[in-house]
Amino acid sequence: MTPRVSICIPTYNSSQYLTEAIESALAQEVTDYELVICDNASADATLEICQRYEDPRVRYVHFNELVGQASNWNRCLDLAVGEFVVLLHADDVLKPAFLRRALEVLDKNPDVGLVHCSVEHIDQSGAPLQVQKLYDEDRIDSGEALFKRLVLDGCVVNPAGVIVRRTAYDAVGRFTEEIVWGVDWHMWMRIGLHSQVAYLADALALYRQHPQSGTSGVMATARNATDEMWMLDDIFSESSREPRTAALYEEGKRRAAHRTWCFAEELCRLGLQSSARAQIRQTIRILPSMLFSGRVWTLWFATYLGYGWFERAHSCKKHLVRRQAAVNLSGNQR
């Protein structure tokens, strides 16, 4: 009998976290699912861990060819047979109620193609860090509403707590293999253009932050910025460039430039000055008008003089602005 849900764990050399991910899948309150572990040529203890499980719902598939992350996610889609698909990263965790709560929504709302939830961030040892919450209540939105938020606010859908109706994946196609940053973000946008989406306000998944997550390499080269612009260009090339969508595209570019600049500032603060300069260059490429922004040049100089110099310059500017405001107010009161 075909399972209703396919929980797929794409994994590559993540044996230190894999057991916890598998156990969280097997602890679901709903039991009508398969668990597919898609091993991307791991060279660690992944095989030994998976061989411990004799549960008939567990299916371990090992691939000898190492491919990119998106390609392995697409392998998961190829292997999944369920009506609904969960991509559970090998370092993340599902809480026991996740499937039950998500299926309740999907069964009552056939137009909903994707359900996501609040997510608790944890560190590499499992200690809680923060809760990522989009709304304070459960809700169903038009896909267009989520699409707009994804364009303007970044990837507000955390992949740790997402389930997708298989027909939604079939309608929009596979994960893109053209980029490495924002592959899931790009997919959620495409699904948002196709179907309604639902949100569960309870934190029903755990997202692990750790140094091996791969983000550091992307940030060092500013690949995040080039991939984000590829994503926007690709998404908007598929929709008509009527004034409404053209305006959203331009605002999306402006927000992307701002996010890139924020990455630059954080990298500068951390002392990663070469990476910060790469982010600044991409900021200007995305939005050339930023070339005339004083804060961009102040941060550029700070990548040579130290972040403390940027803080002092920024503090001095705020002091001068407040002082000028006080002078203007005094003049107006005479």
Low-pLDDT runs: 323-331
Q: What does the radius of gyration come to? A: 23 Å
Helix content: 40-55%
**Element pattern in H and E:** EHEHEHEEHEEEHEHHEHHHHHH
Average pLDDT score: 90
Taken together, the total number of domains comes to 2
Counting DSSP H or I runs of 4 or more residues, the number of helices is 13
Question: What separation lies between the terminal Cα atoms?
Answer: 84 Å
What do we call the CATH homologous superfamily of the largest domain? Spore Coat Polysaccharide Biosynthesis Protein SpsA, Chain A
Task: Tell me the overall shape.
Answer: globular
Mind telling me which CATH architecture of the largest domain this is? Alpha-Beta Complex
Number of strands: 10
User: Major β-sheet, in short?
Assistant: 10 strands, mixed
In terms of DSSP E residues, the strand content is 15-25%
Structure write-up:
The protein is an alpha/beta fold and about 325 residues long. The chain has two domains: about 210 residues, Spore Coat Polysaccharide Biosynthesis Protein SpsA, Chain A (Alpha-Beta Complex), CATH 3.90.550; about 100 residues, no CATH class. The protein is built from 13 helices and ten strands. A hairpin with a 5-residue loop joins strand 6 and strand 7. The longest helix has 27 residues. It is globular. About 5% of the residues have low confidence.
